[in-house]
Write a structure and sequence with these properties.
2 copies of one chain form a homodimer. The first copy, chain A, is α/β, with parallel strands linked by helices. The first copy, chain A, has helices at 30-40, 51-56, 102-110, 125-135, 152-165, 174-186, 190-194, 198-205, 211-216, and strands at 3-6, 21-25, 44-47, 63-68, 71-72, 94-98, 116-120, 139-143, 227-229, 232-234. Chain A has a single domain, classed as putative 2-phosphosulfolactate phosphatase (Alpha-Beta Complex), CATH 3.90.1560.10. In chain A, strands 1-8-2-7 form a 4-stranded parallel sheet, with helices on both faces. A 4-stranded mixed sheet of chain A has the order 3-6-4-5.
């Protein structure tokens, strides 16, 4: 099995996703939040590019959720904090969801016809790795980054996946090697490092609930692995 | 002073270079080779995009040098191994030079009108850092990468520069923080790490002179800092 890391969606055109498993990563916070939603019992999530498009799904009995620049967009039911998605009210509901980076990465990956698209977060790390291994396919770890720039927390998570799979995969690219080195070096002080990241600083400047950072770094508290099925994210049994 | 790291030229459109000092980095091997050439006494180097364009300068009494995919292009005077550029015959000569990644990065940076463009390599690390500090300008460390993908050795060098400047600069981006962490962790085993990189493997597969790797990682053996002056790289006194 071959494993590659794409640091930001802006670099996606350099990669071939055909017949590969793509894991979309947006630790702070879209892919973390999606795992929480499915663990709560959400039926399906429709990733949407723009808030305007997302709004239209209100009429079709979707919960509508939108985040831009780390805050909830006014007029929407929900934002992008994982805590919001623990609400049992969401059980059985459908959500239309748009975020600054994560849903964009999903849409771009989908347009490149991969074998499958899985959603990765520290919350479901081991379950995700198991699913990747069962697939037997080559792997692309797609970091959502921040507005097409590199970010630390998504790269650390890519490194965490590679750390678990390294005995069974080759890593031809330096981006994968570098992500693995970063994780190996910092696996015991992940939170301290992520708190130095630009996105954690963005939270601080916005006076956002910084418990989100601790929450998003919890490992293996869920076994759900959301994946794309047609236009929707679902959790296959 | 603010310092940013651009992992590959493909990400350059996300950055503003205006009034900034840009350091172009292609450790294996273009920017290393350029430092060797100026240390040997070359008069000026014209970075050129394509071999076809480079060939034309033969008539204007330039030495013509071209590398693609790590090997010398047939029909040219020289390739891209630093050892070739230690030849005293080059003293006072002008070179037209095109390489897979380094000269492309220089041309792209130039098109974005920065304050200045400097050439960085481990060979001239301290002299380069001194020149950056004297400038007092914000800094962009531009890694040439490999065909627009991330590479390890250029990122390690960006980290080495930041390690020297960290007390006098802020690093708002995660790309800079990550490069610094990578260098700090591996500064005592740089060569072992770079030998694991994809480009060192490429050299091995091509049966190229792998002493190039050791040569390119020597620190501070030169005080030359090539920089762009109009269309040419020169060494200002």
């Amino acid at each position: 099995m071959k494993a590659e890391v794409v640091h930001t969606p802006a670099l996606l055109p350099l990669y071939d996703l055909k017949d590969k498993v793509v894991v979309v990563i947006d630790i702070l916070r879209a892919t973390t939040t999606m795992c929480v939603a499915f663990n709560t019992g959400v039926n399906k999530i429709l990733p949407v590019s723009q808030p305007e498009e997302c709004l239209m799904f209100k009429e079709f009995d979707f919960i509508i959720a939108a985040e831009r620049n780390a805050v909830k967009v006014p007029g929407f039911d929900m934002g992008n904090s994982p805590f919001e998605y623990e609400n049992p009210f969401l059980n059985g509901k459908n959500i239309a969801f748009t975020t600054t980076n994560g849903t964009k990465a999903i849409k771009l990956a989908k347009a490149m016809n991969p074998h499958s698209i899985l959603i990765g977060a520290f919350l479901n790390l081991d379950a995700l790795c198991q699913k990747i291994q069962v697939s037997g396919k080559d792997l692309v770890l797609l970091c959502s980054g921040w507005k097409d720039k590199y970010n630390l927390e998504d790269t650390l998570f890519a490194g965490a996946v590679l750390d678990r799979l390294k005995d069974s995969c080759e890593m031809p690219d330096d981006a994968a090697l570098s992500a693995l080195l970063l994780f190996e070096q910092h696996q015991n002080d992940l939170e301290a490092l992520v708190r130095k990241s630009s996105h954690a600083n963005r939270f601080k400047l916005l006076h956002l609930q910084t418990d989100d950072v601790s929450f998003c770094l919890q490992q293996n508290i869920y076994s759900v692995v959301p994946e794309m099925d047609g236009e929707y994210l679902v959790c296959k049994k």
